[in-house]
Structures are given as structure tokens and as C-alpha cells.
Amino acid sequence: MDRAPGWSIRLKLTLSYAGLVMLAGSLLIAVAWVFALRWLPKHDDPNAVIRAHPGSIVVMTGPTRSQLMTGFAPAAAVALVFLLLLGLIGGWLLAGRMLAPLTRITDAARRATSGSLSHRVSLEGKQDEFRDLADSFDAMLARLESHVAEQQRFAANASHELRTPLAITQTLLDAARNDEGRDTVQLIDRLRVVNTRAIDLTEALLMLSRANQGTFQRGEVDLSLVAEEAAEIMLPLAEKKGVLVETAGEMATAVGSQALLQQLGTNLVHNAIVHNLPGRGRVWVRTAVSPEGVELSVENTGEVLTAESVSTLTEPFQRGTERIYGDQAGVGLGLAIVKSIAVAHGGSVALTPRTAGGLCVTVRLPAAPHAVLVPH
Predict the structure, then answer these.
(1) Nearest in space to 316 (alpha carbons), one of 209, 198, 226, 234
(2) CB 68, CB 37: distance < 8 Å
(3) H helices within 179-280, ranges in order?
(4) Taking the model in full, what pTM does it have?
(5) What Å distances lie between residue 308 and 153, 313, 321, 353, CA to CA?
(6) pLDDT tens for residues 191-210?
(7) Around Cβ 281, how many Cβ atoms within 10 Å?
């Protein structure tokens, strides 16, 4: 934004300091002048008297008011000039010292505006208002740097994932054009599978974007009903995979979007079914209420996972290398969407590998205001 040039904060503070010094000095001189003149006669009368108290008379033999004004006025003027210079010089130096941290913060802000988010203010010294501002600014830069890096990785991964089905489609079409006797039914089936994957990926990206924006209507949502509906939706897939899904728990009411929280529950159950032991897998879906809020946990059997691989599963397009895949493996955004939805609702997601194999995902959300919290 273009602004008209004005005085700097340092100059304004300097003038303010000098003005206060001049005002204090003038008041002090005025007070001394008034109280000194009370006791002096107006004219050169050696026998002049004044009354200090009722009934008492003091004979003044010292200088008169005119003599004092002649000697005091030049000294007072010199003192005021000295105070003005002291206020200006001292105020300029003091303002510069006080505003030095602000200069460093401004420099960091300019660097951030030019695209350099790695620079930090790192203001030394004890805690005060400027250091609070600098620490907050550094924390903001760290979050921005992390967010930008995450968005860049996400854009690169999304481009790669979207390019794959498009490249496959192009290959199939080229092969069909070069081979006139090719089975068109088989070609159409393969194109349909590739197109379905591209559509699923696009819908997942839109869902992730919607969750990250946090612009949705909020209402009371019972997570126990979310769990039951998610298990019912995923029942055909569970039967196909030979996985048993069990739901249990108490009423756990959160505040948020019914559609997004239902998507969260469905993604968790889908992930637990797909990455499981085919033909003998188990999935446990539970809800609970605690003093910290409400919880929805989905636990499943499966291959043994390491803590390192589990820590990356909520990143977009990350899949555990030792996990079981199939035709319902998804696009690598299931748990990323779960995390984004939870964070958008003020909650968190915890992933814990099971010792016997598999994974336990626990989503914690703030409880509705009227929810009864029962400590475990």
C-alpha cells in the first residue's frame, strides 16, 4: 500500500522525550521562581518587611525581586537550552536503542515478503514486549515455512498421482489405435478402472482442500453414530476381505460438520479393512468420553509396523511399505484427510502400531458443551 511519507517513530519519540524534559524543567524553574519571589520585596527598600505568618514580621535585607530577576533569568534560559539539547540527543539515542528490536523484526518481515521464510529474528535478552513480538513472529515464520513446504510437496505428489492415470489412459488409447483387432470390451474395462481411480483421487483432493479451509457449518455430531454408519457403509468391503468389524462405545458428542466427520470415520474403517489380514482380520471401532474431550478409535490387525513408518502415514500420498494392498488400496489420502478433518475441528490424531501387528488410530475432538465427561 502506498502511503504519504511521514515522521519516523524514532523522531516522534525523540521529540516526545525532549518535550517532556522541557516541560518538567520549565515547571521546576517556575515553582522555584514563584516560591523565591514570595519572600522578596518588590523594590530596593532595605526596610521592607513581609509577613511570614499572622502576627509575625520579618525584615528583609537581601536582594529584591528586580535584582533576582536580573541574575536568575539568564541562568534559567541557559538551563532550558541545555535541557532541550539533552532531551533531543538523549531522546534520539534512547529511542534508537529501544527501537532496535523493531528494526530487526521489520527486516525479517521484508525478507519473508521477498520469499525467504528461513530467516529468524532470534532476539536475545530477557522477556519483554518486543521479545514476545519477535518470538511470535519467529513462530509464525516457522509455521509458514512448514506450510509452504507441505503445500509444495503436496502439489508435486498430486501432480504425480494425477499424471499416472492420464498416462495409462494415453497408453491404452495409443495401443488401441495401433491394434485394430484389439478387444474393445477389455479396453473399455481397463479405461473405466483408470478413470475411476482418477475420479477418486480428484474427490479426495477436493475433500482434503475443504477440510484444510475449515469453512463448514458446525453442529452437534454423535461419534458413536458416525462409527456405526461407517461400519455399515464398509460392510460389503469387509465381507469381501473376510474382515470382522466390531463397534462399541458410549455416546460421544462433538461439534463439527456431520459430512466431514462421517468422512473421517469412513476413511478410518476403510483404511483398517484394506490394510488388514485377508480372511482372518479384525477391526474394532470404539467411542469414548474423557475429561479432554471425545474419542473415536479404530484398531485393526495386520502386518507389524514400525514407529518410523507409522509417523508418515498421515502425510498425503504416504503408504506404509509393509502394508497389504489390493484393488481397494485407495489413493494414499485416507489418513491425510482424517488428520486434516480432525485439525479443522480443533482435534488431533494419534497413530500407534500394535505389538501383535496392525494399527490403532485415535481421533480426539473437543466435546460438545453439554456433554458429560466421565473420567476413565
Answers:
(1) 209
(2) yes
(3) 184-213, 223-233, 235-241, 258-274
(4) 0.57
(5) 19, 9, 11, 10
(6) 887 788 778 777 777 776 76
(7) 22
